[in-house]
Amino acid sequence: MEKLKERMDAFSDAVIAIIITIMVLELPIPKHDLFSEYMQFGKAVGIFFISFCFVANIWYQHSMLFNDAKTMNDHIFIREFIFLAFLSLMPIFTKIITYDTNRTTVLAYGILNIIVNGLFVRLSYAVIKQKYTDQQDIKRIFHKVYGNHNNFLGYASITILVLAYFFPKAMVVVYLAMPVISFVTTRHD
Amino acid sequence: MEKLKERMDAFSDAVIAIIITIMVLELPIPKHDLFSEYMQFGKAVGIFFISFCFVANIWYQHSMLFNDAKTMNDHIFIREFIFLAFLSLMPIFTKIITYDTNRTTVLAYGILNIIVNGLFVRLSYAVIKQKYTDQQDIKRIFHKVYGNHNNFLGYASITILVLAYFFPKAMVVVYLAMPVISFVTTRHD
Amino acid sequence: MEKLKERMDAFSDAVIAIIITIMVLELPIPKHDLFSEYMQFGKAVGIFFISFCFVANIWYQHSMLFNDAKTMNDHIFIREFIFLAFLSLMPIFTKIITYDTNRTTVLAYGILNIIVNGLFVRLSYAVIKQKYTDQQDIKRIFHKVYGNHNNFLGYASITILVLAYFFPKAMVVVYLAMPVISFVTTRHD
Amino acid sequence: MEKLKERMDAFSDAVIAIIITIMVLELPIPKHDLFSEYMQFGKAVGIFFISFCFVANIWYQHSMLFNDAKTMNDHIFIREFIFLAFLSLMPIFTKIITYDTNRTTVLAYGILNIIVNGLFVRLSYAVIKQKYTDQQDIKRIFHKVYGNHNNFLGYASITILVLAYFFPKAMVVVYLAMPVISFVTTRHD
């Protein structure tokens, strides 16, 4: 399975590269020389950057995780593709949240956020368990992939979801800011 | 031809990665905060997942097949590209079936389904025949690529096509469910 | 420059893989259950297959050409990217010829056809000249990349272009058939 | 970090390959057999070529830069992705400049131009500083990546930006011509 593992790595990287780049196709361009249209375009660019950070962050963690592994099995293959299927929904959910910011869309975005993170934790666990049996090793690898922020981000996600039900418009800012904070902090440990 | 074979592997993987990812661009987003629009978006996401499973499954079988081969010839090159040409129609046919579910579209989808599977079997045969002459070896490789489900799925495809002529709306569910079942069962043997 | 050469190979392959796959995004889907709409979709699929053959053919020749080379220089880099720039216009010109088949579009398509082939010949020459000095070797490589059909196809292109001025609608069929014939014959020598 | 560095190289190349190719999707095709529509399509193709040159140029410099490096660190990862995020805005800003050429769009394009170049210089510096400590070596690498044109292009960018405020329509031609000139001259040193 070694050759297949390398091929899956390359395939996943290609899928993530496409996800991160096609998001720019969705940006609405200003059609008239009006300040309001430029503002709307600026907002769209901002949201593009946020999605870009989110996916770049996932790609980094994903690479760290699989660099450590030498081989794979069918179990990991299925978890990997379920993870990729949900990850590829991220841009379209970000687009929806831009288009109409209300309770439903913010909750949907928050739930997708938690699902993608959850699927990645499950995938990480399957990959690490395959190689290491010692609990110390497992902890060390998890730390390399996630930094120290994992527990904090997990609790934060659920807290924000509850708050989002009551204050959707305020919480969207927090949601959107999270990948940026995670992108910068995790790397600087 | 060894270097060319590796290059064709990478090229095919890139094409399949693009096929699997551009499908998400076709999803219609909800434009108003209405329950009916969210339902329609949910249905579109469901169909996206099904297409994702189908292509992921094909990618896995395709990788298994070519990992075993060391070289290629012009014959395999032509079969590979005919296979890829039909495979890349899969997303658009899935989109059509979503848009208008009637006898014509369901039959068209069913026929494409059988064509893609048939082309892959022919491709597999060309690849395997190039390397192995012993009948036992050929059987072993076919089993690795397809699992035990090959005959069953072949018969099922034709049965469903006949039924689809009489009950198009019911059969679309069966068609769409097949890649998901195949994705999960083949890997768990 | 060896590492850069490998990187340029991978980059070109990725660009060609994207060109060959995004063409399917342009296909207009049938919106109503009418025979005329299905016919139009069938025609679009046919043109997609033709473009697919053309690009697949180019990819094969391109791979054969660069597999033989060990290194590259700035001259080859510039010719490669000029070639890729024109190649990536192929899908949109094919789309235009489908949309409105008249003298202007058929001539434009024919001229692009000749430009792409001419740029590839110039690129081949630069790559081969870099490695071989003996005229016999140069001839041998040219034969490997192009088969015996090169002269024939060159003369045919110009003849068709002249005829296309007088009979645009008839000549479009010939133009569109050429990549398919080239795809099948070159490989079977 | 060596494996991660190679993976980041492949990922960046894939992102740049997608950026360079999806620009062709944005080209508006002529819908009627009118001279004015063909002219507009010709202008769009011209702008596509210019963006193609710009990105091809960046890809070449980027490859030269990273071929020299053996490893990477978190600092380089963050700078690389910030650079890619802004680079992927290039096609959409080029599209905007085509759509409506006025003072705002030309200034926006000019500023993006300077930002992308600035981010690439910062990235280069981080990559080179990691490996070399001797000032002579750093100068040598910078020269390999940029050629002799770096200072000239830097001063030119700022001069043009000032002029663009007063003569937006004239300066757009200069802006658009710069990547083409840079593409041809840098390589011919």
Note the main attributes of this structure.
globular, homotetramer, 8 helices, mainly alpha, 189 residues
How does this model look, in words?
Four copies of one chain form a homotetramer. By secondary structure, chain A is mostly helical. Helices cover 83% and strands 0% of the residues of chain A. Chain A has helices spanning 2-22, 35-68, 74-87, 90-99, 103-131, 135-146, 150-166, 168-187. The C-D interface holds C 3-4, 7-8, 10-11, 14-15, 18-19, 22, 25, 74, 77-78, 81, 84-85, 88-89, 91-92, 95-96, 99-100, 102, 104-105 and D 9-10, 13-14, 16-18, 20-22, 24-25, 27, 29-33, 38, 41, 45, 48-49, 52-53, 56, 59-60, 63-64, 67, 183-184, 187-188.
**First and last CA, distance of chain A:** 34 Å
Radius of gyration of chain A: 18 Å
Number of domains of chain A: 1
- Choose one word for the global shape of chain A: globular
Q: In terms of topology, how is this protein built?
A:
4 copies of one chain form a homotetramer.
Chain A: H1 2-22, H2 35-68, H3 74-87, H4 90-99, H5 103-131, H6 135-146, H7 150-166, H8 168-187
Helix pairs in contact in A: 1-2, 1-3, 2-4, 2-5, 2-6, 2-8, 3-5, 4-5, 5-7, 5-8, 7-8
